[in-house]
């Protein structure tokens, strides 16, 4: 490590640094060249590790989590930093069968896991397509959340159209204990989620006073229509069989979930004045489906969704999970400077070549290097990233999986300092 | 050998494949012949996968077809046929990790490629791997993992096998979407792979199969 290195922000006020950092990130995100390459740090489970507490405690004690976030921010000085961006409370309240959390279904130091299941069976497609909302409330929710079993007792949602007569016909059932229990579970989850959102907002405001602009890009999460059908409904196994056994139904279902997600994301962005939508991609990367399948089932639906968001002034921040090396040319079809792409394990230098003029690139630093590398290796890779991927702007340095669990704090520090050293334009 | 059945399976024509099996059974075809056709078809599927024509959807459907046909045919067989296997492999997703899709595909591909595979499932404790290496004596141990915590579990598993004095008895491969050379070195495994075909290639290399 260079011994005579000095932090370029040394001596500036927190207010000034915060404004500069926000501008740096904003400029890079729209393909401009900022004063230097900004650093986006997803710290994740590094925070409880640094604080010597379990991950369960980290989730359960927001004050402690905030303290650790501030400590990491002060130590590494990235341009923006976030820790966990979700909380187990609502899931636990509703008996969520698709998530497992440290201390809730897992060891107190386990890693959050999303468990894909076939909540929607092949024979459910027809009812799903005929009336997705009714199917969601009376069939899906009772299957996916143990505390919502009572919703299966409700009459078809369409009965609400019967106005006054529906009260006569159906309102007594709303007092049935399983139905009441389900509504109570939803109310409890809603309350916990609202508390969490309040804590996140307070955390963001507090971080800003310390010089770290909060990253609002993560506020709204939507999915590629294919992934939506896969992750929470059919599971990977189920949906891959659908591609071969019932392609038309899958395509019809994708059109439905695409439409309501776009409507929701645009309305939400307007309501909160946060014009971003986070889209983590799961099954479209290299290795899962063939290019012809990708062209039929994945890309057109995703691209259509992104174009509609962009038309409405919403910037998709897309997380290209896995490796996209063979599919980068599709990404180059997107309008220039209107999307942001985070890349996990794609060849980041190739990414720059193919889509560097199309979108801001986020990522570059692999977790494995920050776990088991040396300071020299980290500095060397950082230098190469700054020189090649950072060339001309449009690059935000980031850890590739937005999680730093198990990483060596000395290496993280070396990485951040090297980015400031080699990333000045 | 029925080219029709081999082609139906290999071309993902599930309806046709299942109808042909019914027809063959009705005509008194030896169940062994039908299973041989399945193996030939699975070889073709594996080759198309290797060439990049087929991806995971086809592997899953092929597996489904094989499962359905086996269930129909096996009860009718007088004796089990055991072709000579290329080697014994223990596979499992390491402790703390419950991802099974990639691991299942590796199991499937190793099986189709002639290995005797024992699948220990997911979240497999370190000791369970050690016990299996000691008692079942596999030629190869394949550790799967997707989460970053898997790196540590892989290392702990390899270390425990060393400690038990079994490290020189078994070749060890690690694999999964986030596994790279760094993780391989850290864990102390012999090699790593990021996909199922690499697992087969490594096994073939180690077992001296051409």
Q: What features would you highlight for this structure?
A:
heterodimer, A: 425 residues, alpha/beta, TIM Barrel, seven-stranded parallel β-sheet, three-stranded mixed β-sheet, 17 helices, B: 210 residues, Methyltransferase, Methionine Synthase (B12-binding Domains), Chain A, domain 1, Rossmann fold, 2 domains, five-stranded parallel β-sheet, 5 strands, elongated
CATH topology of the largest domain in chain B, anyone? Rossmann fold
* Total number of strands of chain A: 10
Any idea what the CATH architecture of the largest domain in chain B is? 3-Layer(aba) Sandwich
The most extensive interface, with participating residues per chain, is: A-B, 30 and 28 residues
**Low-confidence segments of chain A:** none
Computed over alpha carbons, the radius of gyration of chain A is 23 Å
Computed CA radius of gyration of chain B, to the nearest angstrom: 18 Å
Distance between the termini of chain A: 21 Å
Briefly, what is this?
Chain A is an alpha/beta fold and 425 residues long. Chain A has helices spanning 14-29, 46-51, 55-60, 62-76, 89-94, 125-130, 132-144, 164-170, 177-209, 225-245, 247-272, 291-311, 328-331, 348-355, 367-372, 375-389, 409-422, and strands at 39-42, 80-82, 99-102, 105-106, 113-114, 276-281, 315-320, 340-343, 360-365, 395-399. In chain B, helix 2 runs parallel beside helix 4 (56-73).
How would the blueprint of this fold be written?
The complex is a heterodimer of chains A (425) and B (210).
Chain A: H1 14-29, E1 39-42, H2 46-51, H3 55-60, H4 62-76, E2 80-82, H5 89-94, E3 99-102, E4 105-106, E5 113-114, H6 125-130, H7 132-144, H8 164-170, H9 177-209, H10 225-245, H11 247-272, E6 276-281, H12 291-311, E7 315-320, H13 328-331, E8 340-343, H14 348-355, E9 360-365, H15 367-372, H16 375-389, E10 395-399, H17 409-422
Parallel strand pairs in A: 1-2, 1-10, 3-4, 6-7, 7-8, 8-9, 9-10
Antiparallel strand pairs in A: 3-5
Helix pairs in contact in A: 10-11, 10-12, 11-12, 16-17
Chain B: H1 3-10, H2 14-26, H3 31-50, H4 56-73, E1 88-93, H5 101-112, E2 116-119, H6 126-136, E3 140-144, H7 149-163, E4 171-175, H8 181-187, E5 191-193, H9 196-206
Parallel strand pairs in B: 1-2, 1-3, 3-4, 4-5
Helix pairs in contact in B: 1-2, 1-3, 2-4, 3-4, 5-9, 6-7, 7-8
């Amino acid at each position: 490590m260079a011994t005579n290195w000095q932090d370029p922000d040394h001596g500036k006020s927190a207010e000034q640094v915060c404004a500069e950092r926000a501008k740096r990130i904003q400029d890079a995100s729209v393909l401009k060249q900022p004063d230097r390459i900004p650093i986006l740090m997803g710290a994740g489970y590094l925070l409880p590790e640094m604080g010597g507490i379990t991950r369960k405690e980290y989730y359960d004690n927001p004050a402690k989590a905030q303290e650790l976030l501030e400590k990491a921010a002060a130590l590494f000085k990235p341009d923006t930093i976030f820790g966990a961006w979700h909380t187990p409370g609502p899931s636990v309240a509703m008996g969520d069968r698709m998530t497992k959390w440290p201390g809730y279904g897992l060891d107190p130091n386990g890693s959050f896991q999303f468990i894909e299941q076939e909540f929607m069976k092949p024979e459910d497609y027809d009812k799903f397509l005929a009336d997705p909302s009714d199917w969601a409330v009376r069939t899906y929710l009772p299957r996916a959340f143990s505390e919502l079993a009572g919703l299966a007792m409700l009459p078809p949602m369409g009965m609400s159209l019967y106005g006054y007569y529906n009260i006569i016909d159906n309102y007594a059932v709303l007092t049935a204990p399983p139905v009441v229990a389900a509504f109570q579970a939803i109310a409890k989850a809603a309350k916990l989620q609202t508390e969490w959102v309040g804590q996140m907002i307070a955390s963001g405001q507090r971080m800003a006073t310390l010089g770290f602009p909060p990253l609002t890009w993560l506020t709204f999460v939507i999915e590629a229509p294919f992934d939506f059908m896969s992750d929470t409904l059919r599971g990977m196994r189920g949906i891959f069989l659908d591609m071969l056994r019932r392609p038309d139904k899958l395509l019809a279902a994708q059109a439905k979930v695409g439409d309501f997600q776009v409507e929701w994301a645009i309305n939400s962005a307007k309501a909160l004045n946060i014009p971003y939508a986070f889209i983590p991609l799961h099954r479209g990367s290299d290795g899962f489906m063939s290019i012809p399948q990708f062209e039929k089932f994945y890309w057109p639906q995703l691209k259509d969704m992104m174009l509609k968001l962009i038309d409405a002034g919403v910037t998709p921040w897309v997380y290209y999970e896995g490796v996209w090396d063979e599919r980068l040319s599709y990404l180059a079809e997107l309008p220039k400077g209107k999307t942001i792409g985070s890349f996990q394990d794609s060849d980041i230098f190739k990414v720059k070549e193919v889509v560097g003029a199309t979108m801001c690139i986020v990522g570059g630093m692999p977790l494995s290097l920050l776990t088991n590398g040396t300071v020299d290796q980290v500095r060397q890779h950082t230098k190469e990233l700054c020189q090649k991927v950072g060339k001309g702007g449009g690059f935000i340095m980031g850890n590739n999986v937005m999680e730093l669990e198990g990483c060596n704090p000395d290496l993280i520090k070396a990485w951040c300092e090297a980015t400031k050293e080699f990333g000045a334009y | 050998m029925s080219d029709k059945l081999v082609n139906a399976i290999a071309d993902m024509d599930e309806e046709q494949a299942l109808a042909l099996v019914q027809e063959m059974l009705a005509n008194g075809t030896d169940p062994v012949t039908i299973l041989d056709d399945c193996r030939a078809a699975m070889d073709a599927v594996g080759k198309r996968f290797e060439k990049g024509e087929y991806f995971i959807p086809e592997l899953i459907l092929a597996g489904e077809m094989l499962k359905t046909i086996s269930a129909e045919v096996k009860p009718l067989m007088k004796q089990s046929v055991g072709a000579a296997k290329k080697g014994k492999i223990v596979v499992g997703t390491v402790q703390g990790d419950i991802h099974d899709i990639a691991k299942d595909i590796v199991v499937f591909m190793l099986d189709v490629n002639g290995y005797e595979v024992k699948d220990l499932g997911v979240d497999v404790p370190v000791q369970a791997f050690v016990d299996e290496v000691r008692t079942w004596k596999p030629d190869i141990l394949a550790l799967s993992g997707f989460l970053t915590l898997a790196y540590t579990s892989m290392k702990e598993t390899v270390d425990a096998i060393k400690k038990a004095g079994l490290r020189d008895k078994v070749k060890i491969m690690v694999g999964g979407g986030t596994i790279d050379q760094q993780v391989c070195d850290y864990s102390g495994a012999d090699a790593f792979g990021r996909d199922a075909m690499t697992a087969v290639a490594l096994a073939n290399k180690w077992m001296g199969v051409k």
